[in-house]
Design goal:
Helices cover about 40% and strands about 20% of the residues. The protein folds into two domains: about 160 residues, D-Maltodextrin-Binding Protein, domain 2 (3-Layer(aba) Sandwich); about 90 residues, D-Maltodextrin-Binding Protein, domain 2 (3-Layer(aba) Sandwich). By secondary structure, it is an alpha/beta fold. α2 links the parallel β1 and β2. The strands form two sheets. A six-stranded mixed beta sheet has the order 2-1-3-10-4-11, with helices on both faces. Strands 7-6-8-5-9 form a five-stranded mixed beta sheet, sandwiched between helices.
């Protein structure tokens, strides 16, 4: 009898051990605002913290460009995703992503930057010029900035260069007279690039990028990840993990927090306009 129970215990331990080893890691997709290498360097410490805190295996993922990231969201390819506010409004409705958290004490603003010694002092001086943007559906960097220019009858030619870093570099190197971005990515751009740029214009603020989860994620895992984000936000010894991404900490969020973005009535991913 005793030997039978012993064999059963060993078998169960083997089964659970095998399940743990073979369990598929959760994917944490991050919108590609910078180079994949730089993003991995910046986001991996945060993901490692969450993995350790929750006991869940979590892997960093991104995409070669924003349109590819959007296609992945549409397929529900990420278990967890850091996406722009417009992406969330779209993929909350179509793919079922659920808001979990967003940056605390922060609103996202669109920026238009110019080279620091540029003679351009007003938006009206950009009329008829080519302006660099990350991608058509980059919320604050493209959609909000473009809408404001059109609203004020400033004609321009958009050029999409795939990432925020590419926008800043292109303007710094004078390939374009101006470019669209956001303060968070500008602040973490290389110093030699950032110091050569000047903010010409800022938009009003909107609810910032969410961390959202797949509709298939277990509620227990969602809560564990949220608890991890809250713990990280309140752990002053780990502030560098947040600062390297231009983040100050997180608060819990609801899907309705992005109603300010929904109210803009943006038409589609392929042809965003207000």
């Amino acid at each position: 009898m005793g030997s039978s129970i012993h064999r059963i215990v060993i078998t169960l331990c083997f089964v659970f051990s095998t399940f743990s080893v073979n369990a598929k890691p959760l994917t944490f997709g991050v919108v590609p605002q910078q180079s994949a290498k730089k993003m991995a360097e910046n986001w991996q410490p945060l993901i490692d913290y969450l993995s350790t805190y929750t006991g869940l295996s979590i892997e960093f993922k991104t995409a070669k460009d924003i349109p590819t990231f959007e296609a992945n969201l549409a397929k529900g390819a990420y278990d967890i995703a850091y996406m722009n506010p417009y992406h969330f409004v779209v993929f909350n409705e179509t793919a079922g992503y659920r808001a979990l958290a967003h940056q605390r004490n922060k609103k996202i603003q669109g920026l238009i930057v110019v080279e620091k010694d540029s003679p351009i002092q007003s938006l009206s001086e950009l009329s008829g010029t080519e302006i660099a943007f990350p991608a058509p559906a980059a919320f604050a960097a493209t959609i909000i900035t473009s809408a404001y220019l059109r609203k004020n009858n400033i004609a321009f030619i958009p050029r999409y260069v795939n990432s925020h870093d590419s926008v800043y570099l292109a303007v710094q190197r004078k390939f374009f007279k101006a470019g669209g971005g956001i303060l968070r990515t500008l602040n973490v751009a290389p110093e030699e690039v950032r110091s050569d740029l000047r903010v010409l214009w800022k938009s009003q603020g909107y609810t910032p990028h969410p961390i959202a989860t797949s509709p298939n994620m277990a509620q227990g895992d969602r809560q564990a990840i949220l608890n991890g984000l809250m713990a990280l936000s309140n752990d002053t010894s780990k502030s560098s993990v947040l600062k390297r991404n231009g983040l100050s900490g997180f608060i819990a969020s609801n899907d309705s927090d992005w109603d300010d973005v929904r109210a803009l009535g943006i038409a589609s991913l392929s042809r965003p306009h207000l």
